Amino acid sequence: MESRMLEILVCPLCKSRLRYDRERQELVCSADRLAFPVRDGIPVMLESEARDLNAAEPQAGAQ
Ligand SMILES: [Zn+2]
Q: Mean pLDDT of all residues in the chain?
């Protein structure tokens, strides 16, 4: 994926810059805690396709 492309990619919800997770092939919005998938080099900027990072991570301190 081109880095130039990343510069113009913003979150469709809050319009903030996205962070590219190279390993997971995801564009992460830290504000919304959502990760948008990149499929075949094409970012899928749909809220319905995004992964909820809150749901994916175990709750700290909850035992
Ligand atoms: Zn966002």
A: 85
